[in-house]
């Protein structure tokens, strides 16, 4: 058994016993109340899930096992000559709660290289789809197609004991994370580069090899970008739509392949991950309408026009955050270091100067600030990746790190089938009447 797996097993077995004891002795402790507005409002803030790998604070943003994004940049091992953390280090941190050494991260890079081979039928499944199928659909279908290789499903079919579930879940998670860049690069090259593919470079780390297989010029800076990109998109606690989808599906004892394919179908919605394609699409349309170097007054008018048409401003707002997203800021810092004069980046910064004030003025938007998706597209465009329908796939490659690490914990904890309660509108009206009487 590898060292990471051993550590994970030891820690998760201990926590499982501890949490079971807490549930038994303190299970009646009330941890909050649910209001009708939450029943009718997407369950915002309702605490109902255990998620070990990260936690989201409305004002400070994401912390991975307690570390903020600037702190990750400090503590996680880096590739030679690069200021960005290696995502392998973040996976290690999220999985066992320890900052890895450079040697441990190197081992993980190699381990994922070893596990990265796709089953032959996955290529056939992708190739069977018309090329104009949205890349997220190709991605989701490809992931689901690898279910046939799930060690968890095989073990379950053979009658594996519950206490062993964690083991093949870890193996499936490691295999899937290792394979995702290969799947994603294959889709990208298939759809946008005439099916001309680039072989993996096994000497590279996970993110750099992905950048290499995508075949983007200016490879060195793009490799750094991919290390940053795949780190900052990796997890956003458990309640976001894609993570929650994976958690729900996984709770039925579906394999990591099926639960992660489901997560990708969630991520593919424009209010969630697809917002990264919508942002750049909106910016391209704006540039077409008002020019490459728009003034703030012109942008203001364009934003108001978008709102008047009954649309949202993509890349702005968040269900939990109430301050500018630290993931937006991390990308801004990267852009300031590497591409501050790029026209498209200048436009994103001007949009940032204009949009929050307008959204605040609407009086209903709870968070007028940019989220992670507001910045990413402009940087990708600068490096030559203009094919925005692919952007959410990049997000999906990254999100696997947190979601699949978390899925290992759910299995190891023996988390039960998830089954919250729904209510009817009749029930809601009845409760509303009672509340009125009480007043
Ligand atoms: N532009 C215009 N209106 C917005 C808005 C935006 N960016 N963000 C919120 N609003 C509106 C909502 O549509 C809602 O209007 P109605 O009452 O008319 O329905 C109102 O403000 C209140 O919404 P909220 O409580 O502030 O936001 P929610 O928690 O309901 O929704 C989110 C959050 C992200 C769906 C929303 O801010 C949005 O649609 N943003 C644009 C899409 C986007 O960038 N999504 C990516 C989020 C990050 C990610 O998951 O990747």
List the helices and strands and how they pair.
Layout: H1 3-26, H2 36-39, E1 54-57, E2 61-64, H3 69-75, H4 87-96, H5 102-114, H6 120-128, H7 135-145, H8 151-157, H9 166-192, H10 206-214, H11 219-232, H12 241-250, H13 256-267, H14 275-290, H15 296-308, H16 326-338, H17 343-362, H18 373-382, H19 391-413, H20 425-438
The structure holds carboxymethyldethia coenzyme *A.
Task: Describe the 3D structure.
With 439 residues, the chain is mainly alpha-helical. The protein has a domain at 275-382: Cytochrome P450-Terp, domain 2 (Cytochrome p450-Terp, domain 2). It is built from 20 helices and 2 strands. A two-stranded antiparallel sheet has the order 1-2. A hairpin with a 3-residue loop joins strand 1 and strand 2. Helix 4 (87-96) runs parallel beside helix 19 (391-413), helix 14 packs across helix 18 and helix 16 runs parallel beside helix 18. 45% of the residues are buried. The model has no long low-confidence stretch (mean pLDDT 97). Residues 240, 271-273, 275, 312-319, 359, 364-367, 371-373 line the site of carboxymethyldethia coenzyme *A.
Q: How many DSSP helices? A: 20
Helix % is 55-70%
Rounded to the nearest angstrom, the distance between the terminal CA atoms is 62 Å
Question: What is the alpha-carbon Rg in Å?
Answer: 22 Å
Mean pLDDT: 97
CATH fold description of the domain at 275-382? Cytochrome p450-Terp, domain 2
Give me the secondary-structure category: mainly alpha
> What is the top-level CATH class of the domain at 275-382?
Mainly Alpha
CATH superfamily of the domain at 275-382: Cytochrome P450-Terp, domain 2
Within the largest sheet, what's the order of strands? 1-2
